[in-house]
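Subject: Sanity check before I submit

Could someone independently write out the structure tokens for this chain? I want to compare against mine line by line before I put it in a report. The sequence has 335 residues.
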Amino acid sequence: MEQSKKFEEISIMRAMAMTMIVAFHSLCFYNGRWAKVNALDISFWHRLSTFLDVIDLNMFVFISGYLYGFLYIYKNKYRHPSEVIHIKAIRLLIPYLFWGIPMAIVWPWNTWTKLFYGIGHLWFLLMLFGVFTITVILQLLNAQRIKFTGKIGISLIITGYVLGLVFSKFVYDGEFLCINKILYYFPAFMIGYLCAKLRVGWMLPNWAYMTLPFALLGLFVFVWYPIPLPYSLVLLIRTILAYIICIELLIILSKGTMPDRTRKIVQEIERLSMGLYIFNQITMDIVFTTPILNQWFRAHWMIGPFVLFPIGFFPPLLLSYIFNKYNCLKWTIGG
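---
Independent answer below. Compare away.
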């Protein structure tokens, strides 16, 4: 693969994931999740948001694992655990605290204790830092000549899911420091890491083209229709399908090349994705705590998501651009 397009597929996937996250947040007022602002629960929007939610964050974590694995294995980076913790603390924990503390003060549904549980949408930053912390532990084990093989990686993927299930069911305080979420998303990180290790992105099997529609259809069925199975099993199947979709997209996108103009747009969205994520949810909170806007979106639930998407995408993208432009601001969004 040429150096110039080595991460082109990753740029596309990250832009896709970020777009799905914004779309998901645009639907949250209509899927019953935002009780804090008297959210509605519209069946169609609820199911569509669930479909997006299964893929979007798993794809983001998958990408993080892939990039980490590529840089660690082939570029000799992240060799010192302290380096990983230092870099990720700056990129994840500092923005988490910088925006999380004001959110605990401003929004009435937040409390100071929620900073230890993942406040608002910023839980993703705390969770991702936890995933990298587990990775550092694995690095230390690897340094002690405990060889990290594909079989161990697969075992860790299975163990992560099982532990996440156990914690969510039997550990009362499993949400502390996002433990449940760390264990749930860690397998996606490991799969991304293994894809980098095995150079899956450079493989060119035709089955990816043929099976991607079936994976998407399978996920659609397991989200859209009531399945007479235990919810934990349904969730497992949904998650596995999301992993398959990520792998197939990685393979398919690695086979193409974007036009220069499209590449610049995609890479710019990728560059601004962290700020977009942070500002998107804050924008949504402002919209729904404004009484007149809250009433309008409640009354116009059929078109509400289509109005919310550009509101939640373009102003936050502009803010992210402004913050990234100045060194005195970019550190607040992980720049």
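---
OP: Matches mine. For the report I'm noting this point. The chain has a mean pLDDT of 85.
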